[in-house]
Design a protein that fits this description.
112 residues; mainly alpha; 2 domains; 62% helix
Length: 112
């Protein structure tokens, strides 16, 4: 029996009454484990879990780019909206993630 199945054994009937489509039971560690399983999701897998996983990936890519550039979050916010590095980062996010232009613009502090 897997760890995920073993965790389910401790749930009560009250827990199950709260379940609705798209919801999950468990703590943040359990959610992270589910997201790790979802990394192999194909094109037919949609929903909030996939969106959450994609957002985590996008944030990780931004954090990696900031480290590469030697910038802090504060520096990212203070740089001009049309900064060449910001534009390149936004292009990379569009190519490698499913995040919307609005999300990218807000995350990188650029115009839409």
């Amino acid at each position: 029996m897997s760890q995920i199945e073993e965790r389910g054994r401790g749930e009560t009937q009250a827990d199950h009454r709260q379940i609705r489509r798209g919801w999950r039971l468990g703590d943040d560690q359990f959610r992270k484990e589910l997201l790790a399983v979802g990394k192999s999701a194909g094109g037919s897998h949609y929903g909030s879990e996939r969106q959450e996983r994609d957002q985590e990936k996008a944030n990780r890519l931004v954090d990696e780019e900031l480290r590469h550039l030697g910038w802090t979050e504060k520096e990212l916010e203070q740089r001009p909206k049309g900064d060449k590095q910001k534009v390149e980062t936004s292009r990379m996010l569009r190519q490698q993630t499913t995040m919307t232009l609005k999300w990218i613009a807000q995350r990188l502090h650029i115009g839409s």
